Predict the 3D structure of the following.
Amino acid sequence: MTPQPDNQATAELLELFATGASVDGEELVVGGCHASELAASFGTPSLIIDEGALRARARRYRDGLASRWPNSQVVWASKSLPCTALYRVMHEEGLGIDVAGGGELVMALSAGADPATFVLHGNAKTDRELEMAVAAGVGTVVIDNFDDIDRLERMVPDVQAVLVRVMPSVNAATHDAISTGHSNSKFGLSLSDAKRAIERLRSSDRLRLDGLHVHVGSQILDTEPFTRAVEAIASLGEFRVYDLGGGLGARYTHDMRVPPVEEYLDALVGAAHEHLPASARILIEPGRSMVAEAAMTLYSVVTVKRGATRSFVAVDGGMGDNLEVSLYGQAFDATVANRVGRGETFSLVGRHCESGDQLIESVALREPRIGDVIAVPVTGAYCMTMANNYNGALRPPIVMVHNGVANLVQRRETYDDLLSRDVAWPQSRRRSND
Ligand SMILES: Cc1ncc(COP(=O)(O)O)c(C=O)c1O
């Protein structure tokens, strides 16, 4: 095995894959598994997660927060990669779980995670979802609007702990679609509305107001918006619990600078020391930065097309398994996994019927050929979350790799799955007004 890359470009590329990734001959190795063997065993596209890197990240967050603010809890934002195996790993690592809606709640419960550690979110929680949460014993419900209060007061049999989500009027520099802290956001209550909600909750005998929640957005590459949000909510008075949300960015390309977890925690906890009561319990809800860098997607090259102005490498996936590019313009990098290195410049495109179905506008790939395996690193967050059946694509499997062993934790969809929700019709020949 030759773990050392033979040049600087390859070394930079390898930095984007899970820690410990190496090159054996010309072949990418992650979690001790050769990329081509993974592709042969599980097919493509496939999401490959390095379990060691995932657990290491969870511990880095957990221990990093605990050492800076002992009365604290890291709560994984499960929307970033909702898959039963992931819920299990995060629970085993001692993290709480942020669930947004009934589906995530069901998955978290089926993984055996403790509902007392769950934080339920949503700007449009239905009666059914709130009933499910109350019945399951979800520890904390985050109030996003006054209707949440009405609904919960009607259905809570005993006492339910709640937080009020506050819109801090902090405009974090990120894509508009994933910026949530500004004053036009659909999430949370303005400072003045939050005051009214707090008053109302203080007089409730069923809803126990524990504190406040704030989340300013996702893929944030600067610590300042996080600290400004802490300062903003501190003006609402003193509480027992502050959930400071998630939002730290992931490093998708080598030229990006992302604050390390420790730098982010230093800034956040620094702001907490400055503005929040010393006795308060602090929660944080990282999603993207928890899971993104532990995973890669493997594709197969279907065609290589050299044109007069542009050359394309087209793979067997695309916006069916990665909407981050077309929704948010997220930049990614890639390599031919069985011939790691740089070469000619191509657009890496998918197989879907849109020109916007492009994984990377311009990427240097080393001699790509039909049948080669392409590895795109940093696809752990929100890619599977938003995977879809565009053009009848089958959602990819999830494979966990560790110490040279690969385990399938979620199988690929099948064509039968695509047909499985169909119902024979008509079921009745009666007209509705008969
Ligand atoms: C309430 C809440 N908390 C946490 C997160 C996780 O954010 P990120 O994945 O950027 O860490 C989100 C996602 O946007 C969210 O809406």
